Amino acid sequence: MKIAFIAHDRKKEEMVNFVIAYERVFEGNKLYSTGTTGLRIMENTDLKIHRFMSGPLGGDQQIGALVAQNEMDLIIFLRDPLMAQPHEPDINALLRLCDVQGIPLATNIATAEILVKALDRGDFAWRDLVHKYKPISEEL
To answer: What is its EC number (predicted)?
Structure first.
């Protein structure tokens, strides 16, 4: 599974604590993150994460590019709903792409926990079928 972590500044500590709590579940998956979030997770866990740029510098768009190609399986994006974000258009584009591609997306810790528990149970096997049977138009 390909899993991405994104967290706004005031949510980074919450993300780190969440990943620490579920580190065993995340092991063995391909992990991605925006810059600082990924660095903080790696400093506090034994996980290896491919880090993109910081969100405001294009990291959200880099993850969005993988989503657009249906190359991402799960995104945990802890957003700060009480703080305006200068890159809000990038955030909205990423959320829209997740809806278009049917990518599970958690934007708060409660939903993230539900999705990670489903991942631990093996409930994401349907994503393997998505990768195996891509639409004919993508094979051309």
So the answer is: 4.2.3.3
